[in-house]
Amino acid sequence: MSRRSGILEFAVLGLLRESPMHGYELRKRLNTSLGVFRAFSYGTLYPCLKALVAHGWLVEETGGDPDGVPATALTGRRAKIVYRLTPAGKEHFEELLSHSGPEAWEDEHFGVRFAFFGQTSRDVRMRVLEGRRSRLEERLEKMRTSLARTRERLDDYTLELQRHGMESVEREVRWLNELIESERAGRDQRAPESTEQGENDQSADTGGLPRHRGGSRPDPSE
After folding, report:
1. Which of 58, 135, 194, 217 is the most buried (most CB within 10 A)?
2. Closest Cα partner for 57 from 33, 92, 82?
3. 82 forms bridges with which residues in the sheet?
4. How many other C-beta atoms lie within 10 A of the C-beta of residue 108?
5. Residues 160/185, Cβ–Cβ less than 8 Å
6. Which residues are paired to 58 by β-bridges?
7. pTM of the entire structure?
8. Tens digits of per-residue pLDDT, 87-98?
9. Helices (H), strands (E): how many in the chain?
């Protein structure tokens, strides 16, 4: 299985763990919540769904709506297929969540893994965050070395592009430092609208996201 199909499998299982969905709703969630899949088509998604069904990790159900609207409510229209996670699929997804090796640190994979951190244990989150930071620090060092060697041969626009790339990596490293600090402290910092009763609560399992200082939080896929 290719890396890209592997991360699609992970994302599909993760989304269906939240609730059963039609293929259309699933694709919409992949596109809007997990931007790395914006270019994915039904021609890519449905073979993945069929493979997951064949493995016994999903089941296909017909009957209208995933929330229970019967097929008779769809008079004159073909009943939609709802995809539902099986117990074996849930177990498989939990196994995938436990993986924290180098593949989870890569640009495309990290963004998707991060989207499911709410379902991931703290020790795994820490390993993924620290691995991602290490990977970016290595990349940053290579970028600095390359820029120092080629600076005199670059025109102003190419030089500015390289500086922009370095700044993006530096910004993500700072963001990762904040996340790692929060995980270590075990803070549970929810969005403002949900913190009235528990802003200072601590959780040994879920940790929390740091409040981002100085502007919007960077996209981890940059």
Report:
1. 58
2. 92
3. 22, 61
4. 14
5. no
6. 85
7. 0.73
8. 999 999 999 999
9. 7, 3
